[in-house]
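can u pls check wat happens w/ hydroxy diiron-OXO moiety
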Amino acid sequence: MLNKRVEEALNSQLIVEAYSSHYYLAVASWAEVNGLGGTSEFFYEQSDEERMHMLRLVKFINERGGKAVIPRIEMPQNDFKSLRQVFEDFLKHELAVSAKVNEVVGICHEEKDFPTMNFMQWYVSEQIEEEAVVRTILDQLNLIGDDKSGLYHFDRDLKNIKTPQITINNTAN
Ligand code: OFO
């Protein structure tokens, strides 16, 4: 049976993952209507991955005798100034998510819930990988600057960049 405090922490992480999926869907849609096909594909995929992260939590909470609460999702930003803003915000968001993941791990530790702490390790690893990918993308954007043909190629190549899929086994898999 899940400890109540851990259950609440997992349910609030579920909100974070659901919002991330929604947010990246908004970015994908914005990119699509602005002729940025590669960026759009990249974020549609990010959105799907975040949904999977949410689902993993739903299943884990329920399997451990808790109750997953499916939340109402806040409306994300739907307009962006530039690709740079998109990726700077992307990094900021992922850093905030990493901080939330660490909070949940901290609560598991305090409550001595080591199975859940082990489950959350997948999210810790995922965040490290995602932050690294976004930083690499931002470095590329910095090199390109405002060069239009550089940005064209950046967008075209982005659809081939994937955030690595972490495959640590856990009971919700
Ligand atoms: Fe859920 O992986 Fe980042 O946010």
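Residues 168-173 have pLDDT under 50 and may be disordered.
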